[in-house]
Amino acid sequence: MTKRTNAKNELRPEFHYVIDLVEPGSSVLDLGCGEGQLMKALQDKKRARVQGIELSDTAVQACVENGLFVYHGDLDEGLADFNDHSIDYVILTSTIQVLQRPDLLIKEAARVGKKAIISVPNFGYWRVRFQLMFEGVMPRTSSLPYEWYDTPNIHLTTIRDFRRFCREHRLAILDETTLVLRQHDCKRVRLAPNFFADYGIFVVQQQDYGQQTPVS
Questions:
Q1: What is the rounded CA–CA span in Å between residue 206 and residue 171?
Q2: pLDDT profile of the chain (216 residues), mean per 10
Q3: Comparing C-alpha atoms, which of 109, 142, 112 is closest to residue 128?
Q4: Cβ(175)–Cβ(200) under 8 Å?
């Protein structure tokens, strides 16, 4: 589940929004952590106590070489080794769409984390709709850059679908950031994000945990 990077040690622009959501000194579990760029940034910028889970042997080795603690594991098997609400933040960035059971892992992330930060590429983005409607081809965007025959994505969603999933599974959305991704930066989208944004970052929490008020 190696994550896309612009260069070996360059931080993806959307990661800056994720970092801003994490309180200093927190414990963090990064699921599908790739080569650990986000974990390293959280460690350096937020003094976070970080650990990750990653399937790729090459990515795990890269994390170890950078002094990061990573479990080698398959996220489709869940997080049975972690206790309820034992981590301050469980992070899933551009990971759920490559899983066999994304619903299981989203609920597991919210069980293990006091908060879960989950990002999704938005298949409702206007460029996706237009490519399908007018060109009749499988769409490609900054957040979905693959051809149909080599994509790792098997469960695509939209921002609206993700919100509905949270309502149906008693997950409170505490914060939502919607973006248009570009090669070296991001643009925040506030108007009709299911149409104009190609990427969403959500902070979710089990409804029976904590007292924070969800976003409307």
A1: 5
A2: 48 94 98 96 97 95 95 92 96 89 94 97 92 86 81 86 96 97 90 96 90 57
A3: 142
A4: no
